[in-house]
Predict the 3D structure of the following.
Amino acid sequence: MNYGIIGYSGRMGHEIKSIFGSSGHVPVLLADENGIEAENGKPQVIINFALPASVNDTVTLCRKYGSPLVIGTTGLKDEHIESLKKLSEEVPVIQSYNFATGINVLKIILREFSLMLSDWDAEIIEIHHNKKKDAPSGTAVLLRDAMLTGDKNRKRCDIHSLRLGGVPGDHTVDFSNEGEVLTLSHRAISRTVFAIGALKAAEFALKTERGFYSYEEVLKKIMDQ
Ligand code: NAD
């Protein structure tokens, strides 16, 4: 496929170019904080791993080319989500704060089972590299949302953010009552997993109807095929 990448010069931009390149996909649109670096024809899908400030221009580019969007940028505000949902009335938009399979399975577990732990304390610890710009991580927020969706009575689940060295992303959810501790944890060993997920999402976007999708939905649809 011919694809576009917003944030091409960043850590994730490099991973995406490498993973997409190894499957023979060609970057025809490259953009970062300095603007558009290359624009050589219609991207069949646009990938965004950048900063929230890039969302408006990315939406404009998707409209210009009628391209689906895969967006992994974290720290989005309600107004960004609204604008992505509006775009999804025209093209497929796949938005996730985490494109790793394990985190999406953890989300399902939390949604499904946290009600059984309603009267236990719950805390989330996330560790990321010291260059990460947002805190708490989008993934920690996503895990807390899954927990609160499964357990509407829960009053509190604090998130603790650590910024250490080059860690790609560790998330631990601890539950405890007077007699037990239950720990669920996920570790991304390298950033490559997120790029592999973005590629799966891009392949899904090429053959799906317009609409707003999470990566969890993409994984479920792939499983059902
Ligand atoms: P980075 O700082 O290494 O790179 C950011 C990139 O965005 C750079 O190329 C920069 O030039 C570009 N950029 C900044 N402002 C821009 C703008 N206004 N318009 C266009 N481009 C702009 O960051 P990174 O580690 O590559 O992470 C990028 C984003 O992806 C972050 O939000 C991070 O949290 C997120 N992320 C998401 C996942 C996931 O699975 N969803 C995984 C890893 C990282």
The pocket of nicotinamide-adenine-dinucleotide is lined by residues 6-7, 9-13, 31-33, 49-51, 53-54, 72-75, 96-99, 194 (CB under 6 Å). The chain has a mean pLDDT of 97. The helical segments are 11-22, 55-65, 78-87, 101-113, 138-150, 192-206, 215-224.
